[in-house]
Amino acid sequence: MTRSRLLASAAALALSAGTAQAEYVLHVLHTNDVHSRIEEINKYDSTCDAETAEKKECFGGVARIAAKAKELSEQIAAEGGNVILLDAGDQYQGSLFYTTYKGKDVVEFMTAIGYDAMTVGNHEFDDGDDGLAVLAEGVEFPVISGNLDLSQNNRLKDIVDGTAVLEVGGQKIGLISALATDTPETASPSDSVIFQDEIEALTADAEALQAQGVDKILALTHVGYLKDQDIAAKVPGVDAVIGGHSHTLLGDMEGALGKYPTMVKNADGAEVPVVTAYAYSKYLGHLILTFDDAGKLVKAEGEPVLLDASVTPDPTITARVKELAAPIEELKSKIVAETRTEIGADRADCRARECVMGSLVADAMLARVKDQGIQIAIQNGGGLRASIDAGPISMGEIISVLPFQNTLSTFKLKGSDVVAALENGASQIEEGAGRFAQVAGLKYTVDPAAPTGKRISEVQVMKGGAWEPIDLVAEYGVASNNYMRNGGDGYSVFEANATQVYDFGPDLADVLADYISRQGPAFAPVTDGRITVIDAAPADGAAPADGAAPAAEDAAPAKEGEPPAPGEAAAPAAQ
Predict the structure, then answer these.
(1) Is 3.40.50.1480 the CATH classification of the domain at 335-533?
(2) Residues 284-302: pLDDT tens digits?
(3) In the CATH scheme, what is the code of domain 30-321?
(4) DSSP code of 446?
(5) Which of 157, 181, 251, 504 is the most exposed place for a label (fewest CB within 10 A)?
């Protein structure tokens, strides 16, 4: 894509009329939520197979990011422009590369690509403080997160900064940053990682940089598109917000949730651009900022660049990816089952209503332990990370769906606590939070417009082949994953009130693989109406609301071969 095309983009917006000739133009290339998509991906955001690659229907991968970033950077430099490459967090978690190399691969590829700075994502804490340290110590560019108080954390305080200043074309570009404050619920930072309010922390950091004479300030955040707009409106001195976390697609293409850039008016009446570039390495964001000679932003334009087959991957990085992939290829390519139809795990569905993958995974969990007195299964929608296309299903695809190495947990819980858990699941539905409850052996109705804590009604449990209202004082056998059982995604009721707990069942990926393999080649999962959303259209493929309840089940965790540079032992991770 040429710069002239970018300049002609419909997203281009002049921020003030009659402004003096601009003195400085900054091109910001950016990624976010790559989620260990080291290899190229298919249209379902899973690892692309050889057949799809042959058809030239693959996207992304680090070799394409490298190629396009280099192409644009060289073009911009040749035209006398200024360019930086940023990442808005969540490089970790989502494929066998992460479970195998635990961030060492990320260090290698981000260094080779040439990033200038990165903010910390919640998944960088999936293996605790040490997991983030692998990245922060390994790269030479700044890894920042400004709303974290790390003064009591000896592991991170000297390697993760709050801000950064880049020298670009004779100008100082200040970077401030923030990480979602619910990260202790979605990942595993230690107690010595203290989270501060994002707006307050960003405001203080912007003021500090301005006091140092920095008049061009970018907020590099991992808080989500809605919060990014709040930051643009409320934090003085911010010229642009480059974000991640919500996997939001912006632009003029089908499925986009807003314009690229999205312009937000701040307290001074100035327009502040907000951008993000979907996820999984599919796009490279390209934001062009024009400042006048006084350092005032006068224009913001650009668009995300689709990294499809028209982008030739960098050959050196491609070769290294293949080398690192070799030890895990056998496991990835093993065919474990088959499906006649796509098994959808669209983020917008699984975090707001019943989705095909959510019901399937919950069914699989329940089937595995139904002979142990377990009646209910609850899986967080955010734990479902990829769809599966029709046809043969590889173990690699299964692990892309459930990459966190979470194990099956069983426990006892009162009916009132089950309802409280469902309320937690619906408590952030408007934010697209990952805590939304996908279920088996259970039916319920959710009203997203109702006050938080009062959104759940008509909860029913399958008993003796028939649905009956949940008994609030009765005790039920529940299956979930060990992450949720230990309070992840706000499920504190599981951690506090569960009895007869066993957190060390098989890996959920193996549970799902085993269950699907038992269904036979005619398997075609659908939704069946176990979750009713008031004032919302039913999900595609939904059956009548009185559809049958669950099923569910699986096998023992598969082991991977020894990699060239093995990572640390795996630990349960967050969504």
Answers:
(1) no
(2) 999 999 999 989 999 999 9
(3) 3.60.21.10
(4) E
(5) 504
